[in-house]
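Annex B. Sample input.
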Amino acid sequence: MSDAHHDESSSEVENTESVSESGEKVRMGNYQKLSDFMGTSPTMSMFRRFTSLNVQNLLFLQAEIAYLEDELESIRQEEQSSDDELSEKRTRDSLQSFSSLKEISEDGSHSLQYETILKIREKLNEYSEYAPTLSRPEQFKRY
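Annex B, continued. Sample output.
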């Protein structure tokens, strides 16, 4: 291949380089041309699934939820064993009524128990969004 032809083709396809975690340069092609091709030929489209990272993320979410679950149980036990009448009443009421649990305290904040429940809810929603996508056997094919 002549130098003139090589210069022409390299200006046609603008390659960019990025560096991998191991420090190797990874050559990236022209995304515009690739996306145009993949858009007109959907059967030729292939995307990485990052299965290992997705599974790891799911495991981290499980660990976070388990930690929050333990934290919630500790808060409940601490409130039940408290000598403080207000804490004792709040704990008793919260076991009977969600509105009591959600009630804002004098300092303008929700109870620690309620705040922890909100954190758990957020993590469970995130977990529930990811878990079903990773339970399909075809998800684990390596490409």
